[in-house]
Amino acid sequence: MNKTQKKHLRAGAHAAHVALQIRSVARDLMVYETPSKKSPGMVPHVEFNFNERLRPHIETLYGAAGYRSLLSRALVQADAEVPWLRRMHMKSDGSLDGFEAAKAKLGSEEILEGKVALLSQLLGSLVAYVGPGLARRLVSEVWPKIPLGSLDSDRRSAG
Amino acid sequence: MRKRDKTADLPGPKAAAAKANRVEIRRLPTGVRGLDDILGGGILEFSFNLIAGAPGCGKTTMAHQIAFANGTPRRPALYFTFLGEPAPKMMRYQQQYSYFEEAKVGRSVRFFNLSDVALKRDLNAVLGEIIAQVKEANAGLVVIDSFRTLARKATGERCDVEVQSFVYRLSQFLTTWEATTFLVGEYVEDEIRDDSLFTMVDGIFWLSQVSERNSVVRKLQIMKLRGQESVPGLHTIRIGEDGLQAFSRTLGLTGKRTKPARRRYLSTGVPDLDTMLGGGIFEGDSLLVAGPSGTGKSALATQFIAEGLKRGEPGIMAIFEERPDGYTRRAATFGLKLKQAERKGTLETLYLRPLDLSVDETMQEILDAIRRVGAKRLVIDSLVGFEMALAPGFRADFRESLYRMIGALTGAGITILSTVEVEDTFTGLPFSHYAISFLTDDIIRFRYVEIDGQLRKVMVVIKKRGGNHSKDIREYVITNKGIVLIHPRRTDYVGLTTGIPQRTGPRAAQGNEKAPEPKADT
Question: Cis link prior to B286 (omega < 30° from 0)?
């Protein structure tokens, strides 16, 4: 294996590591916003609409059109791993339609996975574009009480 | 033009009272190295300014630096973007520079993308949005980037009045809210005359790119500045890892102290040369050593610096031709330990050979090094190399800039030895290719002469400002002690300055020089 191949391999491993960290943050956020379990072993439905919480903050920077294109990319990326997301569609104001219909058909675990996948892709785009530090700052404006250290961890490992 | 202080005509107490009644305007730092000097101290607080120029000149970077230098959590800087470069894109690129403090984003520096408001609504709505955000955040500084795009969108370039009205109301609001404002826009020089914006703003920071042959250099001009005197002219700017840096034409050297009335002699490191100079070089003088290649100009420069180090005078060697290790090696053969001084921090060797530098940037490097080590002696070896290291467009400015730097440094008591390579013509005795002798207080000329079938070296002191000097032409050699003068003046030759002197006296008895060893057995 030559130097370039090794470099690509390292970069690939690093990207996978970052993706895992971002997914972990997305899951933490979703869990934070999910009401506590009513009975052991039962996962409640995630009512939390992360899109509506994040949208005004991200739009401040990206503008409405910018946010829509960010979300549409996240949706395309996420539905490759969670097929039911294909039934979602984005309205002209940037809100998402289709969660209610999905909830009627799917279990709470599947809904949670879908939302985590979509939020991960959205956060991933932010991290890729403005870097983990600024992405973390942006997310912490929305969820100031949640520790988001893991979004920064790729910087430490990269450094 | 310097504004005349009318209170100067008033008697003492009245002048003081008049001054006390004036509003005191605070100067804000720009966060751009060198720019505060150019502005005469900084940005005037609550002023309404325009950063203008063609794309790619560094307008957005400058605006960011100003925002990051001044934004605080209590009085944040608000950065509004419109239709041009979106905020995330700016942040992506601007965070590559060291001034970009991530921790300030969202608190001390806040970004707002108002493209949608501008696209879907009108300038009134944009103004309303800006006013709302400024009020809510209690902003101390506001940037609107790109104002030009916003103005174009608003009027379709049909009518100036709507934009004028917008600027007027924006300026009025922001000034009363005690915010300093920067509009950023792409303009070309032809627009200055017809666009009322240029009349309305308090300050115009004009950025441009100047190309000459293969090199392109960014320039800054403070085209207008109400209430403050700025350094006139075009200043070089460069975008590096710290963001934008400006190089004032005065190199920030105005107002430095002048030479003391009574100055001491400094040794050149060559005792007999000191005698020829009437005791040495005056402290704070500029000495030019001119001569052809191989005559020992760099050797003398090394001895000059080493002598200073021996006497506790830190030094800088700015070298443009020879490599630094060549210098230290030569010094070592003379028994001079330059490496030790470098380690101690009393000597810095600057090896400057980039081919795209502006003269002001190069001089800034030298000035920075002088400040770092507290240098008392400076060597510039050589002026020809210095000139060659500059971008072609700056070579015309070389003498002017050199004059400013040498004048300012010697004025501050730093003694300078510069070398310049000249060809021996054998018909004359030129000091240099350039008319730079006006820069120097003292001139020493080295040259080759043909004597008794050998090409020997002689030196003569041509000029010493403010002091007498020997008129002798002295022969010298370069030994393991450096330059050593070996003979008193030659009285048995005439025409030494031509390089081909005529013998007038009897030939002294002399042994034959050993023939050189053969290079290889053949």
Answer: no
How many of the other CB atoms lie within 10 Å of CB of A80?
11
Q: Tell how strand B281-282 and strand B265-266 pair up.
A: antiparallel
Higher pLDDT, B107 or B434: B107
Alpha-carbon separation of residue B333 from B246, B326, B336 (angstroms): 41, 11, 7
Helices of type H across B230-323? 271-276, 297-310
* Per-residue pLDDT at B133: 95
Q: How far apart are the C-alpha atoms of B401 and A106, rounded to whole Å?
A: 76
The answer to whether B137 touches A60, Cβ cutoff 8 Å, is no
Token reading at B364? 């800034």
Q: Name every residue whose Cβ is closer than 8 Å to that of residue A142 and which is 6 or more positions away in sequence.
A: A53, A54, A57
Q: B362 and B372 in contact (C-beta within 8 Å)?
A: no
Give the gap in angstroms from C-alpha A74 to the nearest C-alpha of chain B: 17
Q: Helix, strand, or coil here: B5?
A: coil
Contact A66 B106 (CB under 8 A): no
H or E element, residue B287 = strand B286-291
Residue B464's DSSP bridge partners are B442
- Record: contact B113-A63, CB cut-off 8 A: yes
3-class state of residue B111 by DSSP? strand
Distance from CA of B45 to the nearest CA of A (A): 27
CA R_g for chain A? 17
Q: Residue A50 — very low, low, confident or very high, per pLDDT cuts 50/70/90?
A: confident
pLDDT for B257: 54
Show the tokens assigned to B458.
């002689």
Cα B504 to Cα B299, B427, B429, B492, B494: the distances in Å are: 32, 19, 21, 5, 7
What is the enclosing helix (H) or strand (E) of B370?
Answer: helix B359-373
For residue A64, give Cα distances in angstroms to A91, B113, B116, B127, B371: 12, 9, 7, 19, 51
Which member of A62, A129, A138 has the closest CB to residue B113? A62
Report the residue count for chain A: 159
Phi, psi of B78 (to 5 degrees): -105, 130
Place of tokens 């240099």: B432
pLDDT for B435: 59
**Three-state secondary-structure class, residue B185:** strand
Name B2's Cβ contacts closer than 8 Å, sequence gap at least 6: B229
C-alpha to C-alpha distances, B469 to A68, B129, B281, nearest whole angstrom: 81, 75, 10
Q: How far is CA A132 from CA A14, A124, B499, in A?
A: 14, 9, 71
Query: Which spans in B379-465 are helix H?
Result: 383-389, 398-411
pLDDT tens across B290-344, in order? 999 999 999 999 999 999 999 999 999 998 877 888 888 888 888 888 889 999 9
Interface of B with A (CB under 8 A): 86-88, 91-92, 95, 102, 105-106, 111-116
Distance from CA of B81 to the nearest CA of A (A): 9
Instruction: Give CA–CA dist B430/A79, Å, rounded.
Output: 81
Please count the other Cβ atoms lying within 10 Å of the Cβ belonging to residue A10.
Answer: 10
